[in-house]
Hints:
Two copies of one chain form a homodimer. The first copy, chain A, is α+β, with helices and mostly antiparallel strands. Chain A has helices at about 10-30, 70-90, 95-105, 115-130, 175-180, 195-205, 210, 225-240, 250-260, 285-290, 300-310, 315-330, 345-355, and strands at about 35-40, 45-50, 55, 60-65, 145, 150, 160-165, 170-175, 180-185, 190-195, 215-220, 240-245, 280, 295, 330.
Amino acid sequence: MASEGSPTKREKVLRALEELGRRLVEQIEAGQFPSIELPSRSTTNIRYDPELRQYVLGDKRVRRTAANIRHLRPLMHLVWAAYFSHELVRSWKTTTLRDVYYSAQAYGFAFKDQQESNNIVVDLESVIGFPREDFNIFPEERSSVFGDLTVEYTVPGYEGKRLNLTSHPDGMMIGPALANAKFVDVRADKVIAIEKGGLFTRFIEERVHERYNAILIHTAGQAPRATRYFIRRLHEELGLDVYILTDGDPWGMHIAMVIISGSAEAAHLRGLTTPDAKWIGVWATDIVKYKLPSDPLTDIDIKRLHELERDPRYSGELWQREIRAFLKHKRKSELEAFSRYGLTYIVDEYLPDKLGE
Amino acid sequence: MASEGSPTKREKVLRALEELGRRLVEQIEAGQFPSIELPSRSTTNIRYDPELRQYVLGDKRVRRTAANIRHLRPLMHLVWAAYFSHELVRSWKTTTLRDVYYSAQAYGFAFKDQQESNNIVVDLESVIGFPREDFNIFPEERSSVFGDLTVEYTVPGYEGKRLNLTSHPDGMMIGPALANAKFVDVRADKVIAIEKGGLFTRFIEERVHERYNAILIHTAGQAPRATRYFIRRLHEELGLDVYILTDGDPWGMHIAMVIISGSAEAAHLRGLTTPDAKWIGVWATDIVKYKLPSDPLTDIDIKRLHELERDPRYSGELWQREIRAFLKHKRKSELEAFSRYGLTYIVDEYLPDKLGE
Lengths: 357, 357
């Protein structure tokens, strides 16, 4: 969140896109073939940074130049994507990757397929260093939020309008407007992010937001990047502790990990991770400790656990212990499994146990 | 929506569940084996009712009686489900089908699998004539809404609180609280339901709610039943016209049809359909008329179209014409395809064309 006077993120994005265009014009005016340099995203240039606790790109860079006929097409696409994104941000319009793919035709060319169009958007991210949500290309997926936080919108038609995020007891969507809203006032001292929608609703009904002074977030499976950015802002700007509750299986663990340390695909980006966030369950050891109903791990689950075991993001003691416990007991449990002790057990017993740890 | 003095839906559901229990007790006190009669949901008992414009069950009924040892297990499950649902409604708790499955273990028995537990919930729906959302068993899926409608909540902690559904520019979740809120004041004169989330957000940004005086609903694919009920209420209680926008393929058509005429699986229920709602596109004929970028239909798409062709819900002239057009041109187009004419074309040109038809 920008303080008075310093540029907003929107302004920074607009400037970065304009700067890209200015460099190209300068090259042309200097009689040079225009070119754009960007960090290489090849796997050999991706490494884990233990300080940042996320994947980052190394020093290898690639250049797209109009002097090379094979570069002309991706260079043109990249310049168009920058122009199109600038238009989006300037006019406060948001769009999707699918829309970008079709929009090319409004400009007299066509992408070969969705993959080609998606790649260009990632190229643009790595050139200007902002995730695509910051230049208004959002995914279809949406998470939702509920809790005692008052925000002030910055989108057109809503400038200066404030809303407390407990106003609607079914929860509010985390979309473009909320991602960029100012945080005005917060009573909560923590964030609890939950994988499942049914449980998010139950937590609201059981007044977890009041009893545990928490902002509740429904990730809806893997959290979209706008939601990961929102969670990071809650931690960085407001100092809230972040706790993550998922199903007790390798996929649930990884939902938590992507909030904590991001993904290799986003190695070219900063500002989407919350390394201090804590995965509080369902742990493999909880399945035993709480005698939860469980299902056997599938071969795919086990293969995935072995992958995670070697993944540098999972090198911490807790993660290694839980991966070993999964592989030992070969069982998994969903969050709903706590209902075997009654519907409120997870809120009355499990949650305080885990927050206390 | 109940007027002052008449029972609310919540009260009706509680009474229906209590009445079920009372009948069982009376049977036992009269020295009879307790039994429950329910309409048969076998396919031979499902027929299409052209008056109601939905599937309904015929007169065939089945009886579960404690006098038959093979009935004991499903009878016990059904009685438990009724008790559990009564507890949920009485205590204002909502839950999910997955939670119901696990909750049995809190009562000392276990369902064989999720399917057995799901079936019992449908049995209970058909006995009391209310969808499971009315006895507080909700799916994971959530749609969202945005528009000039002021609601008054009835859930605990929010009684009497009002909110205008334009308060949050990313949209509000349609969950248990909104499904049962009172409609206090509406400015909109129509509902536009949209399959895709990106487009829902674009419509808000393009002020479709103001320009076309509409409440916008994001169905998020197939609309959950709470959303179908919400749409019906907007039509029945407030007299709003309902328009549905989906991708131009058999799956999009069917998203619209399930809002309009429901599904065969819900033949035992009333009150979830909006027969007067209109599917306004993307039609097969629009793909040609608007020269949309399109993809070839797959074999599965074509098989599905032949199924729909014979489905009584699709007997109307528009539907048959569009099915024939799909089968003739063998192409499909997504809503995003309109972006080939620029991002606002769908709002500036296509939408007024279709609303005018």
